[in-house]
Amino acid sequence: MKNEVDNLFNNVEKELNNQHFIQFSQLTYLDFKGCHNLSNDFICTLVEKSTFLRHLRLHNITDINHQIFDKILIHCPYMTSLSLSQCCSITDDMVINFLKRKEESDYSGDALTFLCLSNNILLTEKTIEAIALYAKQLISLDISGLSLQFTNKNDYLVKEILLNCPKLTNVIITPIKWKDFQKSMNKNIYSNTATNNENNSKLTLNESILKTTDSNEFLMNSTSETYSLNSIINNNIPTKTDYIFSNKLLYYIFCHYTQNKNIFDAMY
After folding, report:
1. Phi-psi sector, 79: left (phi>0), alpha (psi -120 to 50), beta
2. What pTM was computed for the model?
3. Do you know which InterPro entries this protein is assigned to (predicted)?
4. What sign results for the dihedral spanned by CA atoms 205, 209, 213, 215?
């Protein structure tokens, strides 16, 4: 079956290359999720002939290189949505160069508004930093599953994205779901308060929050009027912990942004 699919796409690619004057002038939305057998050359050929393409999703394609980004910049000036999930060959340099050149483009009103780079193991803090600098018109961002190390550094860079991208409404920085995060935090609160309580009596959730320890203080602060994004982290000193992001940052994002992974599906 795989060989048949490969042959089909190879034939299509050859046909497209032979027909130099073919242009997909009406094509604006292209979704290759689940099409794992596509080659980098095939995608480049198709993108090159789709001048009015606005939305492109590639998923689990292993041989993507800088050529695809170059083709998008040259031939697809109106593109506003780009999803590249589990494309394991994508590097920091590719993304940084693309975002910088996209921002410098003269096509006003066609800035990148949707970006998904989830589960790309070669992407690091450098990519997050570039997003804060060059993708300030974003409305939706998914950077979950990247190769990040230092909690304080990660918090600082994500905070810069949130400050520099005021139009953001949908933000995903971790595959953790809100319900799982909430259960974990409630469990920690009960554990901490029970340890510090002389009678070791069981407290209600509200009582636990009122008696919160320093490690859970962010839960109480997050509901106060003085709580702000700037209170999350004020330096980018590399500090490595067991977590990629602090609970404080995760809670802030859960409270202020949606975490919709299917937002690309609704664009069509």
Report:
1. beta
2. 0.76
3. Leu-rich_rpt_Cys-con_subtyp, LRR_dom_sf
4. positive
